[in-house]
């Protein structure tokens, strides 16, 4: 927090011109998860795949440090005052479990000419849990998560076509909102286009990715509690060069 005072009261002998308060939060964590999957070749051209991403079990600890700086005017001279108690506030550890995900995929391969693929994923965000259920605060948070979040379906379809050394790629994705009301965070939609060239011992790829999503944000918790809708759009261009050794 930084405050500046440009309208100094000359009736005060040592008016404050600046206050800078720092409240630093450091978060440390470790976790564990695993993935299982397999691809089944139904024919020379047709593939089916199944993947399971387990929940992530995390242990998190947090620390805070604080310091304050002031600048005051004393007989026409700025006087700096810095206070740092060098105290680290250590909070109790807590455990967090994020949801797992199931994915099924289909792919049809046109020999060496290209392929078409489709992926479907299912993820239940309401399974996000703080594990300290005996703590009233964490229990309340778990109830909020369970009542606000829901199961999300994701769809991805893409394809690639190869002509001699050139490769053309394209894809589309849709991810449903993780919120039951569908408005706090809206659906995510996006598409990508790509072009590649095979030089033999090297490959050059250029990809364009576009995604957009709307979300609602409450300005303040009290007073001005109106909700604004924010439409977010992102565009990324990626170029990569790989070599075959």
Account of the 3D structure:
With 245 residues, the chain is mainly β. 5% of the residues lie in helices and 64% in strands. A nine-stranded antiparallel sheet has the order 3-4-9-10-12-13-14-15-16, with no helix packed on it. Strands 1, 2, 5, 6, 7, 8 and 11 form a seven-stranded antiparallel sheet that branches.
Order of helices and strands: EEEEEEEEEEEHEEEEE
Write down the Rg: 27 Å
Strand order of the largest sheet: 3-4-9-10-12-13-14-15-16
Structural class: mainly beta
What's the story with the biggest beta sheet?
A: 9 strands, antiparallel
User: How many individual β-strands?
Assistant: 16
User: What sort of overall outline do the alpha carbons produce when their principal axes are compared?
Assistant: extended
Strand content: over 45%
**What percent of the residues sit in helical stretches (DSSP H or I)?**
under 10%
In quaternary terms, these chains amount to single chain
| DSSP summary: helix tally | 1
Terminal CA distance reads: 54 Å
Mean pLDDT: 90
Show unreliable segments.
Answer: none
What topology emerges from the helices and strands here?
Layout: E1 2-4, E2 16-32, E3 35-41, E4 46-53, E5 56-74, E6 77-83, E7 89-90, E8 94-98, E9 101-109, E10 114-124, E11 129-130, H1 136-148, E12 151-163, E13 166-175, E14 188-198, E15 202-218, E16 227-243
Antiparallel strand pairs: 1-2, 2-5, 3-4, 4-9, 5-6, 5-7, 5-8, 8-11, 9-10, 10-12, 12-13, 13-14, 14-15, 15-16
């Amino acid at each position: 927090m930084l405050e500046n005072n440009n309208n100094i009261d000359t009736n005060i002998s040592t008016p404050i011109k600046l206050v800078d308060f720092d409240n630093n939060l450091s978060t440390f964590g470790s976790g564990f998860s695993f993935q299982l999957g397999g691809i089944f070749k139904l024919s020379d051209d047709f593939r089916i795949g199944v993947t399971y991403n387990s929940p992530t079990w995390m242990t998190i600890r947090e620390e805070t440090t604080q310091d304050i700086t002031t600048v005051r005017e004393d007989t026409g001279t700025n006087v700096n005052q810095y206070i740092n108690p060098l105290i680290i506030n250590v909070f109790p550890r807590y455990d967090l479990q994020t949801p797992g995900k199931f994915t099924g995929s289909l792919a049809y391969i046109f020999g060496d000419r290209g392929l078409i693929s489709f992926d479907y994923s299912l993820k239940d965000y309401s399974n996000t849990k703080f594990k300290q259920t005996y703590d009233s605060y964490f229990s309340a948070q778990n109830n909020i998560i369970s009542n606000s979040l829901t199961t999300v379906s994701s769809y991805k379809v893409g394809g690639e076509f190869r002509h001699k050394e050139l490769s053309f790629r394209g894809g589309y994705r849709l991810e449903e909102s993780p919120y039951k009301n569908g408005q706090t965070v809206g659906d995510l939609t996006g598409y990508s286009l790509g072009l590649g060239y095979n030089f033999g011992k090297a490959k050059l790829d250029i990809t364009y990715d576009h995604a957009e999503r709307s979300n609602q944000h409450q300005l303040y918790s009290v007073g001005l509690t109106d909700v604004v809708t924010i439409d977010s759009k992102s565009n990324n261009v990626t170029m990569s060069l790989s070599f075959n050794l």
